[in-house]
Every structure is written in C-alpha cells, then in structure tokens.
Specification:
Blueprint: H1 11-19, E1 22-25, E2 29-35, E3 42-46, H2 55-72, E4 79-85, H3 94-112, H4 114-118
Parallel strand pairs: 3-4
Antiparallel strand pairs: 1-2, 2-4
Amino acid sequence: MRLRDARLVDKADFDQVFADNQRARTDYLMVMARPNQVGYPRLGMVVAKRLLARAVDRNRVKRCVRESFRQVLPELPACDFVVRLIAKPVPGDEARDLLRTFARAGHRAMAKWPAMAAGDP
C-alpha cells in the first residue's frame, strides 16, 4: 500500500469522522479516530489558515504529520484519523515535537476506543 492510498480525501469520509469519533489531544494537535471498513489506516488533516497564515508553514506542518503517520503506520489499526491543528506550534523544534505528538495522541485515541485497539471496525 502506498502512503497516497492512506489519505482521506472525500468530504463524506471527513464528515463520518467528525460525526462519530474518539478524540485525543495534545498541546498543538487533536487526533480524531474512527474505525473504517477499508482494512488499513487513513489520514486526513485540517490546518486552519487563521493559525498559520503562510502556506509554507501549513505545508510544513502537514509534511511533519504525514511523516509521523508513515512511521507509526504498521502499529495502527484500520481506522480513519483526522489530525487538526488546534494551536500555533512553537517555532523551532515543532517538526520533531509533531512526530512525537502524533504518535502519542494516536495511541491515546486507540486506548479510548477498545474496539479500535483490538482491530475490530
């Protein structure tokens, strides 16, 4: 499976996650997770322009989140994850911090929803 296939792109998929999810948050990110039927984890991101006005900053955050997702992909159950930036990251070490934060928040969301941890959609 390519990482491109593991992306949420349809509005309907995002709406399902927003409607029924388990959430975990950290200082900068909120991770919403919902079991899916496709058999592998998928990632969607919401990075508001009001938090990061410059497109280059928003894209950097998205790259960091995608890389973190790629690193923890084998450990994740078949769920749709939507990552929302909820606060402006501190300049400097945000890339490394986001890598740790996504993994920690994703595991928190799985712990809140026992069926997800067992791999049952």
